[in-house]
Amino acid sequence: MCIIFYKNYVSLCGYIIMFEEFNAFNLFVTRYFLNFERLIKVLKKSLFLFLVLIGVFGFSQTLGSRLDKGTLALGEVGTFKISVFDLNGKKVEIAPKNKLLPFHFEVIKDSINITENQYDRIITFAIFEEGKFKIPTLDVKIGGLLYSTVPYEVEVINTAKSGDQISDIMNNKEVKLRFWDYWEIYKWYLLGFLALIALIFIIIKFIKFNKKRKDSPEFVTHKTLKELDLLKKKKYIEAGNYRSFYVELIDISRNFLTEQYKIPADVLLTDDLVELIKKNNTISQENEKVVETVFQRGDLVKFAKIFPDRNTMEEDFKNTRELVKRSIKDIEFENLRKDV
Q1: What single-letter DSSP state applies at residue 68?
Q2: Rg of the chain over CA atoms, in angstroms?
Q3: Residue 62 confidence class, pLDDT cut points 50, 70, 90
Q4: Which has the closest alpha carbon to 284: 220, 246, 334?
């Protein structure tokens, strides 16, 4: 009995051991396949990342910039460089020459070199003020896509000490100027000087012309006729105011004779004036007769010795007006006689 029980117990233990070994093997297989699936996923992700990196680095452009020094002495030359790699013939759009850096950066040289696959721009500059100055992010368009550089800061310090000898930053350059170079420099001064001379000449001519015009027989005649027209509009003749009429008529005539014939009619008495006119032979006999008649009648009216009627006053006004008109012929004849 005991032997049978023992055999059964041994068999049972064997089954139990076999079952545990099977479970261990099953667990091993399960873990193996789980790790294999994870490995496959990792490989897939790595392959995808690898392909993306190939696409990025194989078909994109690399934009780079570099500032050689972060600290410069006052007036020291610095260099700023922008490079674009792997262009593959794409167009690079950026600020034009000498317009890329901010205001305080004095550009010395701005060189650009472009090839099929690379763009290089090297700018040498100097700053002549102390302080900290920034180069902001610069926009660069490559093949229609916009990229930006990193910003930089430049500190400028004054390294000079008291007693140091000051010398030029750059050597003086001798430049030979040609005629057109001098013309470009001084042309506005020359043109301004010529314009000033022309203006002075025009002003002098204008003054002389106006002076001559005012002294001309035509101008004096025209002015006197206007004065006679103003006298006519006062209607002294219609009102019978003969005294005012003759006083103004004689004043107008005296001024006219003085300006037109250059005789002192404004200061001479009537008899002296008539005698001077007859001796002078400048005025025609017809005009002499009008002067003598009108002036003598005007003196008589002035001292109330006669009282002329309307017809007489109108006749004297008409004759005086005709005298003024005919005076131009007298002057022309006198000038002709002097020339002969």
Answers
A1: S
A2: 59
A3: confident
A4: 334
